[in-house]
Design goal:
138 residues, alpha+beta, endopeptidase fold (from Nostoc punctiforme), globular
């Protein structure tokens, strides 16, 4: 997969734009945040066919279940279908797609280097990349 030549600026702009967006199931949740980040860097539209089809946690779980039993399994299947290369989380670079093991459950995010970005109740949050359980190159 080839990133856009302007990917560093695109990523910085995306994170700045997302910083103040509040979490909302089906409009701006962890999956849609990560999917939009991947798309902005030149990756595939991993949210195609799912965006706008749910508006709560149960609906999100049902939508992801079309791909796998949970977010991690679903993203693994979706990324494989889109020919995205799975990589060890330790080799992820800025902008790569990750699944984070957070107290609330698996969360989709983007690698930020030694940290990862994900959506939180009031905007983007940063957590240690050591919490990443899966990663895909963008």
């Amino acid at each position: 997969m080839t990133r856009r030549a302007t990917w560093p600026e695109e990523l910085d702009s995306f994170i700045r734009d997302a910083a103040g967006k509040r979490f909302a199931w089906g409009r701006w949740d962890c999956f849609l945040f990560a999917a939009e980040g991947v798309r902005r860097l030149g990756g595939p539209n991993i949210a195609a066919g799912i965006k706008g089809t749910y508006n709560d946690a149960a609906g999100a779980a049902e939508a992801i279940a079309a791909w796998g039993q949970d977010l991690e399994d679903g993203l693994t299947a979706r990324c494989a279908a889109l020919d995205m290369q799975e990589i060890p989380p330790a080799l992820a670079r800025r902008g790569d797609l990750v699944v984070l093991r957070l107290p609330g459950g698996p969360t989709a995010g983007l690698c930020g280097g030694s940290t990862a970005w994900a959506t939180g109740p009031s905007g983007v949050v940063s957590v240690p990349m050591s919490l990443a359980s899966k990663a895909w190159a963008v």
